[in-house]
Specification:
The complex is a heterodimer. Chain A is of the alpha/beta class. In chain A, β1, α1 and β2 form a beta-alpha-beta unit. The longest helix of chain A is centred in the last third of the chain and has 19 residues. Chain A is globular, with a radius of gyration of 22 Å. By secondary structure, chain B is an alpha+beta fold. Chain B has three domains: 226 residues, FAD/NAD(P)-binding domain (3-Layer(bba) Sandwich); 154 residues, D-Amino Acid Oxidase, Chain A, domain 2 (2-Layer Sandwich), CATH 3.30.9; 83 residues, no CATH class. In chain B, 30% of the residues lie in helices and 22% in strands. In chain B, strands 1, 2, 9, 10, 11, 12, 19 and 20 form an eight-stranded mixed beta sheet that branches. In chain B, a hairpin with a 5-residue loop joins β15 and β16. The longest helix of chain B is centred in the N-terminal third of the chain and has 20 residues. Classes of the chains: A alpha/beta, B alpha+beta. At the A-B interface, β7, β8, α3, α4 and β14 of A face β18, α9 and α12 of B. The complex binds flavin-adenine dinucleotide (2 copies). The site of one flavin-adenine dinucleotide has 38 residues of chain A, from α1, β3, β6, α4 and α5.
Chain lengths: 410, 484
């Protein structure tokens, strides 16, 4: 069995930056495994711009952004495998991968999970109606249009106001389709404000908040969707139904970290994020298995994915080199108004950066970081929004002596 | 153009395909007509996939006899056809003391029907068998089994084809006439002269009968909806779990069924509908299925749902009438050489092998059938990569690199399996056809990942963008290319 110091699973922006970071930390015996026939992950189908504003201070397209890291991987001679699909990882870090070249069993000292996420499909949301052709998830449509050059529809309704749906609303409009409405069950848009403005408002595409789809008609190809207003308690408002004739429905109803492999290895997941529970090194409950990017938490900015990958690369390299491990971990918990916080455990011995999301939008809010009743930090936000991930830096002086960290919104 | 056959079978469901295959054991010229783009697109692809032991049908009925016989024939039937089948056993669970009486009643029916090995077990024994199921006592019937109903129907069609049956898809029967003692079947594509007609058109069997002037039957479609659960729920139950049958509706109640591929089904509901082919799902029933299943299986969560579907029962009794109706399987007393199979609702799948034999016997009573010496009972399915051991996988990829490329990540389906499905003997190149043959797109992401890849492979096979459909005519996926 081939022995590798660090195996990185998934060659999207998270895996690319983790690999580069491992190499820079002096690890040469590493392997980046990607199941597609090129590196770059989901960025390859994101041909719109808006990537790299934070790291490069430039407005790049997805493929341009990916290119910078792929070039670096090649320059550093980091070994990578394409068309390699990891089928299994075990608790003792044995990895089974298949590719057209064969089936390989590898053993790693450390593993970095960077498999990205998948889209929530119709069955998981339970949309009633018939099951004709013409229903796609937004990312699937993006792939079919941008990579495979197929036109998926002419008269389109989009369910869910996630970022991919918003981007596709604009893309389809520019390609001559009519986007009749973006239908969102929540009272607010779940995509980024800049996407709402640039993709919907600039094209006068209606965003119907507090609405959902209650029926789908059509036997062979989609004929119509029926939408309805949703009341305060989530119920359908009876007399507020409307049938919209259309041939295509895109679903943009959320992304789910792709943790099937992680489960096989015994990694424990957080039900709120569907990603692994991690400590400040972004290490899972299994020593030497780390996670970064969308497999850990769904990000809205690729730049932050890259930074998370860098951090994980350093942690994994330190693990392999026998760095310090005997930290006293304390829990970091999401209190009222906060949906989740990552990492789930911190050491208080170092400065730490935490990422979190609020549960619902709000104005003039404070985020409070507390150790039981002791206020550690208070940060003011003019606006908070669940679609925008928030980063907080806590320094070790502030954290000294903390027994349990609580973050809440007021 | 007019072609001549000895026997025309109408309907490519499990019943029509079983009959066609059974008849191919004899020297007769057979044509099977199906209106859709593939076999198994009717009720045979949309049921629970249960091979019933025989607890439910009324003693002495045709349903009871064929059920017990079908159950006995099933293991060999599936083995010959390379179709998965597992005898996992059935539990009917009483939620309270009152329901225990019902268990005794069911046991009596089962015993009378000749179902082997049924026993009533205690709460304690139930806990041992099914630790996650709540109940006070249970009836255990060890001969209940599960299969893949669509795989079976496809396998039957393929084996029939191999043995000389002509199968014509996308060919709806429009009318039937009698002429000089022969029958003339008119379809959307032509006219066929035949000695016998076998009416196994499922939900439309009454309409086909009407075409020759038999108006004694009326089918009342009754829809059953389901939830499919993620494979990570595998092992939550090991056997089929039924409630005691509800007083109304005549159904078996909403039950939990492990599928042959490791998922769990919740359903079916029972609701009379108007349009026979309306297999939509509804929010109201989705909620009810969840609630009722949760009473048995408290661990169930809505996060485990990956898909919904529904199938329609071809009932011979309408909504307001209660009581029992039997299968109609006979040569019509009015129209000689016209065999009706009407009202083939549950346990129709289970009965399929026995029904096929019964129909052959009806024909044999009238005319001698000569054995087809070349008949080959064996059919080989597509080799499933995910079922193999690591060593076998390794060897297979060395032989054929297409096995090393995973196309459907959820169900671990490889490029080679997709290619084999595209080259299927029936010549079906729809997405649904590929899905039913390989399971690509049946997993938790429901084709989110594999659909673009399968489209890419279809392209390599020269299928143009307009010809790529979900399930045949009118179900195109695309509106052409974005750029030339
Ligand atoms: C449609 C869309 C639009 C976006 N728009 C913007 C934007 O405008 N600006 C911005 O800054 N950010 C944007 N983002 C966010 C950002 O691009 C993503 O969050 C980022 O690409 C996630 O990186 P990742 O490496 O975690 O995942 P991915 O890019 O998904 O990469 C994961 C990789 O792992 C591989 N993989 C998975 N499982 C296996 C396995 N078992 N074996 C081998 N390989 C495997 C996959 O093939 C994939 O290549 C957008 C995201 C999406 C989806
Ligand atoms: C919800 C539900 C659950 C069930 N569960 C079970 C179970 O667990 N176990 C069990 O044993 N049984 C079960 N059954 C019953 C079983 O599914 C049916 O008895 C069986 O599938 C019927 O097969 P069929 O071939 O008669 O009908 P179908 O599969 O409907 O086939 C009839 C075919 O005829 C075609 N056709 C119709 N009209 C024409 C025409 N004019 N020209 C050409 N072709 C035509 C149709 O397209 C169709 O393909 C269930 C049924 C339902 C509805």
């Amino acid at each position: 069995m081939r022995e590798v110091d660090i195996i990185i699973i998934g060659g999207g922006p998270a895996g690319l930056s983790a690999a580069i970071s491992c190499k820079r930390e002096g690890i040469d015996n590493l392997l980046l495994i990607e199941r597609e026939d090129r590196l770059g992950g989901i960025l390859n189908q994101c041909i719109h711009s808006g990537f790299g504003l934070e790291i490069f201070k430039e407005d790049l397209t997805g493929p341009e952004y990916a290119k910078r890291y792929i070039t670096e991987v090649e320059r550093l001679h980091i070994p990578f495998m394409l068309k390699g699909n990891v089928l299994d990882i075990s608790q003792d870090k044995e990895v089974v991968v298949v590719s057209p070249k064969g089936l390989f069993k590898l053993r790693a000292k450390a593993i970095i999970l960077s498999m990205g996420c998948r889209e929530r499909a119709r069955g998981a949301i339970g949309i009633p109606g018939t099951r004709p052709a013409g229903i796609y998830t937004a990312g699937q449509a993006q792939n079919l249009m941008n990579i495979r050059n197929y036109m998926v529809g002419k008269r389109v309704v989009i369910l869910g106001s996630g970022d991919i749906g918003l981007i596709m609303a604009r893309r389809l409009t520019l390609e001559g389709a009519r986007v009749l409405a973006v239908v969102e069950i929540l009272p607010y848009c779940s995509g980024l404000p800049r996407n709402r403005v640039q993709c919907l408002e600039d094209f006068k595409i209606p965003l119907l908040l507090n609405h959902t789809i209650v029926d789908i008609k059509g036997d062979k190809r989609l004929k119509s969707v029926t939408i309805s207003k949703v009341g305060k308690r989530g119920g359908i408002v009876p007399r507020q139904k409307r049938e919209i004739p259309c041939d295509t429905l895109l679903l943009s109803c959320g992304l789910i970290p792709e943790n099937e492999l992680s489960r096989k290895a015994g990694v424990i997941l957080d039900p709120e994020t569907s990603g692994p529970i991690v400590n400040e090194e972004l290490e899972t409950n299994i020593p030497g298995i780390y996670a970064c990017g969308n497999v850990l938490q769904v990000h809205d900015l690729v730049d932050w994915v890259t930074l998370e990958g860098e951090k994980v690369g350093k942690s994994a390299a330190s693990y392999v080199k026998g760095g310090k491990r005997n930290y006293q971990w304390i829990d970091a918990r999401a209190g009222s108004g906060i949906r989740y916080i990552i990492p789930h455990r911190i050491s208080t011995e170092r400065d730490v950066e935490v990422t979190l999301r609020v549960s619902r939008p709000g104005k003039d809010k404070d985020i409070l970081v507390k150790d039981r009743n002791r206020l550690i930090k208070k940060v003011f936000f003019g606006k908070v929004n669940p679609s925008q991930m928030i980063k907080l830096r806590l320094n070790k002086k502030e954290l000294r002596g903390t027994k349990a960290l609580w973050v809440s919104l007021r | 153009m007019e072609e001549r056959y000895d026997i025309v079978v109408i309907g490519g469901g499990v019943i029509g395909c079983s009959i066609a295959r059974e008849l191919s054991k004899y020297q007769v010229k057979i044509l099977l007509l199906e209106k859709e783009s593939d076999v198994t697109l009717g009720t045979s692809g949309k049921n629970s996939g249960v091979v019933h032991s025989g607890l439910y049908p009324k003693p002495g009925s045709l349903k009871a006899r064929l059920n017990v016989e079908g159950n006995r024939l099933f293991p060999k039937f599936c083995e010959e056809l390379d179709v998965p089948f597992r005898k996992i056993g059935t539990l009917v669970v009483a939620k309270n003391k009152d329901e225990v009486k019902e268990l005794k009643r069911l046991k009596k029916i089962g015993d009378t029907n000749g179902v082997p090995g049924i026993e009533i077990i205690s709460q304690h024994e139930l806990k041992k068998m099914e630790p996650n199921i709540k109940g006070v006592a249970s009836l255990y019937s060890p001969t209940g089994g599960i299969t893949s109903p669509y795989t079976l129907t496809i396998a039957l069609a393929e084996n029939a084809l191999l043995n000389g049956v002509k199968i014509s898809l996308n060919n709806e029967v429009k009318g039937i006439r009698r002429e000089n003692g022969r029958l003339l079947v008119k379809t959307e594509k032509g006219e066929f002269k035949t000695g016998w007609v076998i009416n196994s058109a499922g939900l439309f069997a009454d309409r086909i009968a009407q075409m020759v002037g038999i108006s004694d039957y009326r089918i009342y479609p009754c829809r059953g909806e389901y939830h499919i659960l993620d494979k990570r729920t595998m092992g939550l139950i090991n056997r089929m779990v039924y409630p005691v049958p509800p007083k109304e509706g005549g159904g078996k109640g909403i039950h939990l069924t492990p599928t042959i591929s490791g998922n769990i089904l919740i359903g079916p509901s029972a609701a009379y509908i108007r349009d026979r082919e309306d297999t939509k799902t509804t929010k109201r029933i989705m909620k009810r299925l969840f609630q009722e299943a949760k009473e048995f299986l408290p661990k169930l969560t809505e996060n485990d749902f990956i898909h919904n579907y529904s199938g329609n029962r071809a009932k011979l009794i309408g909504p307001k009438v209660s009581g029992f109706s039997d299968f109609v399987i006979e040569e019509s007393p009015k129209i000689p050489y016209f065999i009706n199979l009407i009202g083939i609702e549950s346990p129709g799948l289970t009965c399929a092998p026995a029904i096929a034999k019964m129909v052959v016997n009806i024909i044999k009573e009238k005319e001698g059938l000569r054995r087809n010496r070349d008949f080959n009972p064996k059919r080989h399915g597509i080799k499933r990569f995910s079922d193999l051991s690591l060593d076998e996988k390794e060897r297979l990829i060395k032989e054929n690199p297409n096995f090393g490329e995973i196309i459907c990540r959820c169900e671990e389906v490889t490029r080679q399996e997709i290619i084999s499905a595209i080259k299927n003997p029936l010549g079906v190149v729809t997405l649904s056809g590929i899905k039913y043959r390989t399971r690509a797109g049946m997993g938790r992401c429901q084709g989110g990942y594999c659909l673009p890849k399968i489209v890419g492979i279809l392209e390599e096979f020269g299928i143009s963008e307009r010809e790529i459909t979900l399930k045949g005519k009118g179900s195109s996926l695309f509106y052409g290319r974005m750029r030339e």
